Amino acid sequence: MAEAQEPDGKPVGPHLNRRERLYRWFDVRIGVGSLMHEALDEPIPGGARWAYVFGSVLLFLFISQTITGVFLSLYYAPTADHAHTTVAYIVKEVTGGSFLRSLHAYGSSAVVIVMLLHLTQTFLYGAYKGRREVLWISGCALFGLMLAMAFTGYLLPWDQKAYFATTVGTNMASEVPLIGSTLKRMMRGGNEMGTLTLSRFFVGHVFLLPGAILGLIAAHVFLFRKAGAAGPPSEHPINPRLPTERFYPRQVVMDTVVALLMICVLGLLAHFSPTELGPKANPADTQYVPRPEWFYLPVFQWLKYFKGSLSIVGIVVIPTLTAILIVALPFFDRRLERRPWRRPFAVGIYLAIMATLMVFGWLSRHEDRLDPAIAKQVAKQDEETKQFMREPFEPEAAANSLSAPAVVVLDPLAAAGKKIFDGESCDACHGENGVGTSAGPKLSGATAKKSPEELAKLLRHPTAKMLEGEMKPVDVPEGDLKALVAYIKSLK
Amino acid sequence: MNEAGDAPTISREEDSVSRRSFLGVLLGFGAVVVGAALSVPLLRFALHPLLTKTTEIGWSDIGKIEEFASLTGPLKKLITVDQRDGWRKIVSEKAIYVLPIKDGVVRVLSPICPHLGCSIPWIEAKQQFVCPCHTAIFTLDGTRVSGPAPRSMDDLESKVDNGMLKVRYQYFRQLIPTKEVLA
Fold this sequence. Notes:
The complex is a heterodimer of chains A (492) and B (183).
Chain A: H1 18-30, H2 32-40, E1 43-45, H3 54-72, H4 83-92, H5 97-124, H6 133-155, H7 160-173, H8 180-188, H9 195-227, E2 244-246, H10 247-272, H11 297-303, H12 311-327, H13 329-332, H14 344-370, H15 372-390, E3 396-397, H16 404-410, H17 412-423, H18 427-430, H19 452-460, H20 464-468, H21 478-490
Antiparallel strand pairs in A: 1-2
Helix pairs in contact in A: 3-5, 3-10, 4-5, 5-6, 5-10, 6-7, 6-9, 7-8, 11-14, 16-17, 17-21, 19-21
Chain B: H1 12-46, H2 48-51, E1 59-64, E2 75-85, E3 88-98, E4 108-109, E5 122-123, E6 128-130, E7 137-138, E8 144-146, E9 155-161, E10 164-168
Antiparallel strand pairs in B: 1-10, 2-3, 3-4, 4-9, 5-6, 6-7, 7-8, 9-10
């Protein structure tokens, strides 16, 4: 608005200034006022706190991941023969491509970290208590879906790391009783990893999972508003007693500050330590030591302890029981006591699980360092990745691209024929290498399958139909005609 | 925010309202600034094909310049053209004519007839370029003599780099009297 405003922006008497009139105009039509009220005036028992920022930060990160993801897909092609080239193109050629990809990759780690913090805060504050079971379960579902996002996204660059980590990841599915091998084949789109696996992971990563996550976020926020903010641990979970403060402004400011800090950290990381891309996946490589993303390392380490027939316990039974324990927590833990020091058992179990995960994660790295063979191979893989990053971008030869020398090398007679083909301007109508144009039919395919004698005859004495199409009888010495026929035959 | 002294009592409600709207402006301003800063790399990323050439045809080698020192007539050569199409390259083979060097200038002609795009052969016996399609005729240096062609044969951009004769292969619009590059 270019118009001058009232000095202090407040209405004087019954008259409204322009800004307020504009606000009224919109409010009457789309209900800005009630929308803002709904969004910003949520009461928080006990007032705003830094501990409550994680949910908003997660929402912010999800939006950031969506935006960077949509932009990355501008240049990405989800097929086994193009995926790696297109990601290399993004990283090495496209302006800001490496930065955006790194922002997206680090963003996925940030989502996992903030999700764990959000979970930890909710758990320690006992904020799942007091008729918040459905809210808690929707959060658990979101947690699972986000991990699935990380898993599916990891394959998309189709480099060595992506390929082999996902091979292991999908192999684990086959441990599931009864439906295991079907499940694995469904994830892979076949028995082996291939272009269908990539399609499936891509569709999951950009359509199905984000769609489900979006719906669940809406449900999660709605359920949160329905139950009301839980407030500090001393607060009663059902009938809050503490004086309340509205969500806006202090909590909004805190949420925004942390979200900004987050984007600054991600931006600095992406700028100064961009995510690397390794060499293209080579399924024939038998030496490659696959390692998952850092947040899957504890599970990876965990599985080492369950060999042979026991692996079903490690891969299926214990993780399923743990998941059930976590999801069903508000049903087990029905007391209304929220203060963590009054819930030593629950808090103890939670901390034990977290500590175990950290120890396993650390052990995984530690064992890799201790084993000289693995340490050497991992170092070699790192060096290969660094080497690939140093090389300039190599565009992929298009399918219709011709490597002319191939024809020449294959058959000297055909090569001589090609010279006559070009010299007689056959290419004027039949196109480069006989691919055909609007003026003349293609010579590869059916024509090339005719016998040499028949071809020679047609070249000397074109049929009436050919003459009508302005084909001229070929007037060259017999030897040259032989070469020309050999060349046409070579077009396949 | 209020002129001091004029308002004897400021209720907490009023104070918090003006504080809220001030913070609102601050947050809105901050969001716009940060949003604008973040959209810069996104825009540059999306506009990459507009800011850099992603579908360019580069220079192709024809041969060592010495090869062409003693030409007496146009020499047909096949060149390999690498055409970039984003992350793909299309490799194709094209024919060009190298003309005899005259006053130290090397000229390279496109063999494509400016009439309807047929490839024009050099007819040694007639010492002329004669288009096989509609018999447009051109002299040794590609100048139009007769026939339906609207202009002379098209020169291709060429250069000598480290003793290597190079050409930038291009297509030109047909049926018009002036040479115009097809994008």
